[in-house]
Every structure is written in C-alpha cells, then in structure tokens.
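Final report, closing paragraph on structural work. Over the funding period we assembled a curated collection of sequence-structure pairs, and we close with a single example.
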Amino acid sequence: IFGNENSVVGVVTVLSLLTFRFSNLDFDAKQSAFTLFGIFCIFMVGPHLASISTPIVKFVINFISIMAIVVLSCHNVVLSNQSILVLSYLLLYGYQVDNINIYISRVCGLALGGIIVAGVFYIKQRKVKFENKLSDVIKDVNFNNDRTKWQLKLTL
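Its predicted structure, as stored:
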C-alpha cells in the first residue's frame, strides 16, 4: 500500500504487534496506548531528521529520540520492550528516504501502524489494572537511580 521503499514500516509494525499483544509498558493501559502511538510519532520524525542532518545534530537527534523511546518503554526492565522499539528506530534510520512522496507515504504508514499497535495493545490490556501512570514513569527518571543509569548507557 505504501510502496516497496517503505516495506520496513510493515516490519516495524509487525514486530511491535508481536511484542505488545502480550506485553505491557507497566503503566495505565490507556496512557500506554497513547505512549505507543507517541513512539510511532518519534519513528515518523527522528530517523528522517537525523538522516538529513550534520553529524553533531544527527547524534543529538538520535540520542534524544532513543532516550525518549527507552524511558517511555522500559519502566520495567524485565519486559525488554525497549529492544524491539530501539531496533525499529534503527531499522527506519537505516532505510533512508530521499523523495518527499516516499517520506509522506512512510509517515502515513507509521501513523496507521501506530494506530493498529496502540489499538491491539489497548484491547488486550484494557482490563489489567496498573499502579503506575505515565507521570510516575517520568518522575522516576533520576540519574542517581540504577534504571536511569542503565537507560542512559543503553542509549549511548
């Protein structure tokens, strides 16, 4: 549907579906579904902006994007959700797009993929009660805590 150049979008969507139909982000299901879509929004912008930037700007964009993905998806390190999402980011970064029409198709494909993944996730997890909220995950980012140090090392 979105062209052969964007087959990586299908791979990213399938990987995420396979991961998040049984896994969770360890916080409120509705907020997690929106967060998953937000990560797909990072996929829409981050890899493309980094690929057209200078090396220092590229590093900053990739660092911020990957750190955001890791923090949002890895509150419970045991679940290893971040590995699939960082892999997806790197796959999208590796398949650069030079044509604006192909990029628009990629954005549309990722938007649709994000909606599908978030929807399936929410349907599967909506009855599970979580103690944490997204705000708790963000408050837990502390560079003196072992999880945040690990997340930073993973990002670098």
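The chain is about 70% helix and 0% strand. The chain has a mean pLDDT of 90. We thank the funder for supporting this effort.
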